[in-house]
Each structure stands twice: as C-alpha cells, then as structure tokens.
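Anyone up for a design puzzle?
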C-alpha cells in the first residue's frame, strides 16, 4: 500500500479501537453507558444555561452610554425600569458601552454566576465520568484521550504551549493593564476590575484610532469584495472562478461557481454561494462539504462540492448591500474553507477537504484573513459605493492593521485562562473547580482578582460540550497561521509560486498526512510561536 492507504487503514483501526474493539464485552457496555450519561449531562448543562431567565432592572440613568436602539430592544418592568436579560448579546454591549461602573460590576457578576450550584455539580460529574471513560481505553485522564488524535498529541504539550504564549504576553499585558487602571483612576470610581476590561479598552481605542466602522461600510459593496476575493485567490492559488448561468438552485439568491485550475483548465470543483439572510434559513455562517473529493473504484476523481452560507443583509431596495468590515473578514475566512475543500487531492473521502485534524482545520482560513489588513489587498477589495474607483484611504488601511492587535494581550490572556482551566480539570482528579478558577485568574490575569460571587465554571459551555479538553485549539490555529503568513506571504502578498506551494503542500494532502509534517514541509522547519508573539508586539501597546 502507498503511504496514504496505510494512513487510511491506521485511522480505520483507531476508529474501531475507540469504539471498543479491544475491550471486553463488559467494558464495552460500560463505555456505552458512560457515553450516554456524558451526553445527557452535557445537554443538561447547556439546557440550564438556555433556560436561565435571570434579568436585572436598571433605570435609564444607570444605563448611561448605551445607544437608543439598545434601550428600545429591552423590555420594561411595571415601574418603568429596563430589564437587562443575562444573555450574551445584551451583556457584551453593556459591558463595552455603559458608563456607569456599578452597573457594569452588577451585570458582570450576575452574568458570571448563572446556574451557579446546579451547573457546577453537573460539570464536576461530567469530568468524573469522562476520566472513567478515558481510562477504559488505557488513558490516564480524559485530556490525554481527547488530545491524542489531535495535532497537539499530549496534554503536557498543550500546557507547555499555553504557558509559553501566556508568558510571552506578560510585558504587553502589564502595559495595557497599567494604562486601563490609570484611565479608571482619572474618573475617580472604584478600582479597576475585570468587569471594566471591555469598557476601557473601547475608550482607549476611541482615543487612539479615527476609525468609523459605520462609514467604512460604504467602501465594501458586496459584489466588489467578491470580485477582489476571486482575484486574490486566482493570483495566489492559480484558480479560476466561473459563475454558472441558470443553475438549478433552492433560492434565487443562490449562485453556483465552477472552479478551474488556471493553467491546465482542469475542473477542480464547484461551490454554491448562499449569502443573504432570509426567513427559515440556517442562521450560521459556515462552509458545508456537500460532496467530498476522492478517487472512485475505477480510478476517476469525484469532484468536490462546497456550500458557503452567510447571513448578509440586502439594502432597503432588496439589492446587494454593503458589508461591515467584520463581514469582510468573515467572508475571507469562509473562502479559505472553500479553497481548502476544492484544492484537496486526497484519494480517500475520509481525508477530503474539511475532514482534517481539528487543530489544523482552521489554519488555512486564518492565514487568508491576513489579506483583510494589508493596504494592497484592502484597496483591491474596496471602493466607495457611489464611485468604486475610489478605494479605501492609506491612513485607514494603516489604522486597521494597528487596530487588529491593539490591546489584544489582556483579552488573549483571559482566553488562555479559560483554556488552562479546561485542560486542568480534564487532566486531574478531584479538582476544586471554584478554587482552581480563582487561582488561575490571579496568576494569568496579572493579579487581577475574579469577581466576588462569580462562578465562571457554571457558565462555560465550551468545556461542557464540543470543546472539552480542546478549548486551546483556536489559539493553536491562530499561532501557526501567523507563522505561515509572516514567513511566507507578508512580504509578497500575491506571490504565485508561494501560493502554489501552499496549495500543493498544505491544501492538497487534506487529512492524508500528519499536520505537523504538512506545515514543516511547507515552512522548511517546524512551526513556531515567535511570529504570533512578534505581530502583537509590533502593533500592540
């Protein structure tokens, strides 16, 4: 067998083993019981959060700083006060914009103790059952079981990675924290607390940057952004996109594209583009693999087909509208997944497109996001909607690049805090979850204490379902995407030779090779955290 076929057989055997092939009948039945209990408890944890109806009443004065449209979205109590529900879409806006420090503290504390005791006991039981489940398969703890088949391989490697990133951010985060504390002292309120982070970062950004994101939309007409993305993907990866006229689709907004190799004209795949929000439509932004690329039994290649779903708004006249900058970044990201699926050349559907290591799957898309912050590519995808020959100005491009990483160290350390918590509870027995969080908060957040009464472990769904023992993965992907972009693309954004190497060495293998082997082959060395750290130091505080 060739190396890919051997890898395929190895993966199949691993699947069988993880489904209990090597266990006795008694242990296999126990594993099934544990899996059912784990699934039920995970859903209970999420259901408790979804069912939580906690709200707090505030007067208009206590909500000073929040825009009129936010206040209009709130229900009112009989006494005329506003009801602020403890849901993320209400809370995050309030913590960023409300000028009243006591309001921010009350909301942050209440939000941080949702489902307190009930979900704490659910999480403790969940972790206990996960450890039991992992040990049936010969692992010492659940973290080692969860990470074993991922790029990181071991829990100890994850700890080392998170600690290294956290330590590298300390100097920058200390400068950020000092500035935020000084800013709060000027206002003569309570000492700076974690509940103040979003509000004062927003204030500093307003002083440092002249960025009007509402006005910026006028430079990103949808059709112009799309044509710019196609141009970048063509020049980089040698791809030609051709819209199919009169294609059979499920809605008039949907269009279909053929993707050809630019030099050979070989048909590589198709993708559907379903950009606009409508009633009854799936309400997330994502790429779905409709058909995998693979070799059939007669040796012919099955053509990959992808679907890009987005939730853009049309203008009032029902025409293609203008994009927020965040939507531009999101669109670049999702096109990264489209290219990843279309350019895959694996022989087995098992390794096709997006069916790759979870620690690796986001890396190509995160690499592509970088083009949204470079002046050359920003001008390529932008143009004033009433005169598209006028692209975005140079000073705005420079501001966007600085804004990207400005005051990012503290927020990233806060994310690392949750990743470390997730890894520790899934690596050890009988952990005091509340005390662990308090200890980690002080350590990681440079002595900043956790809010009194808050219990973040009771409202941390990623550790309950979906990302258990793997919350680190997003940061992991960002780090190695930064290494790829800085090392290979930053100095020559449309270098076709480098783009084709990326297509052939990173995208083509899919899951048929180990990710570390793929990245090392492309970079000419093992991937490093240095570029990630340096980019934040260059544009941070």
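Challenge accepted. My sequence:
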């Amino acid at each position: 067998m060739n190396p890919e076929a051997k890898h395929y057989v190895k993966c199949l055997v691993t699947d069988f083993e993880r489904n209990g092939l090597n266990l006795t009948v008694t242990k296999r039945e126990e594993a099934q019981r544990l899996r059912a209990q784990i699934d039920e408890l995970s859903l209970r944890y999420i259901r408790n959060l979804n069912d939580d109806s906690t709200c707090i009443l505030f007067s208009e004065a206590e909500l000073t700083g929040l825009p009129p449209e936010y206040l209009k979205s709130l229900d009112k109590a009989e006494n005329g006060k506003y009801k602020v529900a403890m849901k993320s879409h209400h809370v995050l806006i309030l913590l960023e914009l409300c000028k009243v420090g006591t309001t921010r503290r009350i909301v942050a504390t209440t939000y941080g103790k949702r489902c307190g005791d009930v979900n704490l006991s659910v999480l403790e039981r969940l972790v206990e059952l996960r450890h039991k489940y992992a040990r049936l398969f010969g692992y010492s703890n659940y973290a080692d079981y969860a990470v074993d088949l991922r790029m990181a391989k071991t829990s100890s490697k994850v700890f080392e990675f998170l600690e290294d990133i956290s330590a590298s951010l300390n100097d920058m985060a200390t400068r950020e924290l000092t500035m935020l504390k000084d800013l709060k002292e000027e206002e003569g309120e309570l000492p700076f607390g974690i509940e103040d982070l979003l509000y004062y970062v927003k204030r500093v950004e307003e002083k440092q940057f002249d960025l009007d994101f509402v006005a910026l939309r006028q430079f990103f007409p949808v059709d112009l952004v799309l044509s710019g993305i196609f141009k970048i993907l063509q020049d980089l990866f040698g791809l030609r996109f051709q819209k199919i006229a009169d294609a059979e689709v499920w809605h008039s907004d949907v269009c279909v594209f053929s993707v050809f190799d630019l030099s050979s004209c070989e048909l590589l795949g198709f993708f559907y583009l379903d950009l606009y929000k409508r009633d009854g439509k799936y309400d997330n932004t994502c790429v779905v693999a409709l058909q995998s690329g693979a070799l059939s039994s007669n040796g012919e290649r099955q053509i990959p087909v992808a679907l890009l779903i987005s939730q853009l708004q049309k203008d009032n006249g029902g025409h293609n509208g203008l994009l927020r900058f965040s939507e531009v970044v999101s669109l670049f990201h999702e096109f990264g997944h489209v290219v990843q699926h279309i350019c895959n050349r694996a022989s087995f559907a098992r390794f096709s497109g997006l069916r790759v290591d979870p620690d690796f799957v986001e890396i190509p898309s995160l690499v592509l996001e970088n083009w949204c912050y470079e002046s050359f590519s920003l001008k390529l995808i932008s143009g004033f909607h009433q005169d598209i020959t006028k692209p975005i100005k140079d000073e705005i491009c420079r501001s966007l690049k600085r804004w990207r990483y400005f005051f990012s160290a503290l927020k990233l350390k806060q994310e690392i805090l949750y990743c470390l918590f997730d890894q520790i509870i899934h690596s050890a027995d009988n952990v005091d979850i509340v005390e662990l969080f308090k200890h980690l908060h002080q350590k990681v957040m440079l002595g900043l204490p956790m809010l009194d009464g808050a219990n973040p472990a009771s409202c941390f769904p990623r550790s309950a379902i979906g990302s258990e023992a793997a919350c680190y993965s997003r940061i992991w992907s960002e780090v190695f995407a930064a290494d790829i972009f800085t090392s290979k693309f930053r100095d020559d954004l449309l270098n076709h030779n480098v783009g084709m190497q990326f297509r052939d060495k990173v995208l083509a293998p899919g899951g048929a090779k180990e990710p570390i082997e793929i990245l090392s082959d492309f970079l000419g060395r093992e991937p490093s955290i240095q570029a990630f750290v340096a980019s934040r130091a260059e544009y941070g505080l």
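A detail worth pointing out: The beta strands are 55-58, 75-76, 82-85, 239-243, 255-261, 267-276, 286-291, 294-295, 301-302, 305-312.
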